[in-house]
């Protein structure tokens, strides 16, 4: 099939690589607002052609992937849907409620399937695209009942071939769960980087002493503001709810250490260790 | 040389593997308070023999490694030093000030070299031992001027052969820096696990939706309380100082999101991104 990818960054570019490698896409057309990204996407072989002609790209495609930050998504998705006839359109965004609310009365709503591949890295742009990013990961399909059955079937078929595991959620549920298992991790990582950069003025020491543990908790702090601020904005209520709980947990641990109540600190760590049951 | 390792867990066991693989150790004697760990260390080939006879082990050794949790360290290290003649003794502990203060008047102080290999994983026990854990990592040598020159020279030679990069710090400095680049990461990870376990009652959803970002920020929450509570206790002042700064940073980010001041959130993320300069 012919696939158009709008936004050829980490996610759009990695999806292009996967769709080509699995022979799902016979031709990939790329669009990116940034001419440099267009050029790099061509050079890196992520896409077969780039264009600024959205209408032509959509008309020549079977599947249109909108992989832009969530603020731009609110503008771009309706533009794409206005051009759609039989094509299937997907987003790959991290928040769903506001987007699905915004297009709920769109006459082409049925051609759109809201999906969220639970995969990524802290890097962005076409150079960040990597093969096999999605292999074995989870794809969330949101509010599938609002999409046409044939559109859902096409999306299921494409992503099962990557292969990805499919999970079906309502948009409200999706936004709550991702606040816990994705959005909060980015906030704590940004705050941890700020803490260390603020207080540890000897950067050479951070460099010398940082080991795997520090790197793994702080690596998400390299993530792009252009991607994450719109996510925090669109999922603000859930993010604040989780963040408030996290602040309570941290403050509680802080107070127990301040009070030298080490048996209680031990109990809390034993409780935290239960995450072993869930993450291998 | 003959090496005795007291405490054959993640660090002691991994060091045994490295000392054997580099042919630095011709014989490794293991001691562990836990008979099961002794048995496993033998089965896994981490050590050539196990014994409960500390005096005999020390007398037959050139190098004695004390790799026990920091609370036990305060008891075990003086017991070892009381048995030492020409042998060199090292700890591999994560906090230094309290330990070095406790032994500062020990008549065998010169035979002891305080070191901290900046490497580890979230697992513990002899089965957690892995080859090459220390390759290319940093070894901090603390207060080297309080150790005999020949003892420091032997330790430098051993760890340079692993190979590790040597960094020299005072104990006070060491404890401040490790609060930033190691201890705080563990506290935020424990608190993040507690947050998610407390609020996300649908464990199946965590399992399905958790991707690399969540796993990397939360993996340290699998770490052992037996190891970490004594570290928080002995480095309490620095840990509280860093934790208070982290709470301020998190609260600030929370307030900006609550106030919908997204330009300021963007600025904070750009500041946090500066960690890219330090961590590749």
TrEMBL record, chains A, B:
InterPro entries membership: 6-PGluconate_DH-like_C_sf, NAD(P)-bd_dom_sf, PDH_C, PDH_N, Preph/Arog_dehydrog, Prephen_DH
Alphabetical keyword list: Oxidoreductase
Transmembrane segments: none
Example of a GO biological process term: tyrosine biosynthetic process
Pfam families xref list: PDH_C, PDH_N
Entry keyword annotation includes Transferase: no
One function term, GO molecular function aspect: prephenate dehydrogenase (NAD+) activity
Keyword hit for Oxidoreductase: yes
Domain (Prephenate/arogenate dehydrogenase): residue spans on this chain: 1-280
Designated name of the protein: Prephenate dehydrogenase
Organism for this UniProt entry: Hymenobacter crusticola
UniProt lineage: Bacteria, Pseudomonadati, Bacteroidota, Cytophagia, Cytophagales
């Amino acid at each position: 099939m012919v696939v158009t990818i709008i936004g050829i960054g980490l996610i759009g570019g990695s999806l292009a690589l996967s769709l080509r490698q699995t022979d799902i896409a016979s031709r990939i057309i790329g669009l990116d607002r940034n001419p440099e990204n267009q050029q790099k996407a061509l050079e890196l072989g992520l896409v077969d052609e780039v264009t600024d002609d959205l209408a032509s790209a959509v008309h020549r495609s079977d599947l249109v992937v909108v992989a832009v930050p969530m603020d731009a998504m609110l503008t771009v998705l309706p533009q794409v849907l206005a051009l759609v006839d039989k094509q299937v359109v997907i987003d790959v965004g991290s928040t769903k409620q506001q987007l699905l609310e915004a297009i709920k009365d769109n006459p082409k709503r049925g051609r759109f399937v809201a999906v969220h591949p639970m995969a990524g890295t802290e890097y962005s742009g076409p150079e960040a695209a990597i093969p096999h990013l999605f292999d074995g990961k989870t794809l969330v399909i949101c509010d599938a009942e609002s999409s046409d059955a044939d559109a859902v079937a096409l999306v299921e078929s494409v992503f099962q071939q990557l292969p990805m595991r499919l999970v079906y959620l309502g948009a409200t549920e999706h936004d709550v769960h991702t606040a816990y298992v994705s959005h909060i991790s980015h906030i704590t990582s940004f705050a941890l980087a700020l803490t260390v950069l603020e207080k540890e003025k000897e950067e050479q020491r951070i460099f010398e002493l940082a080991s795997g543990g520090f790197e793994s908790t702080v690596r998400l702090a390299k993530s792009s503001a252009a991607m994450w601020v719109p996510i925090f904005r669109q999922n603000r209520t859930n993010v604040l709810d989780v963040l408030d709980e996290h602040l309570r947990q941290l403050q509680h641990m802080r107070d127990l250490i301040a009070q030298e109540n080490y048996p209680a600190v031990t109990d809390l760590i034993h409780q935290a260790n239960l995450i072993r049951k869930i993450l291998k």
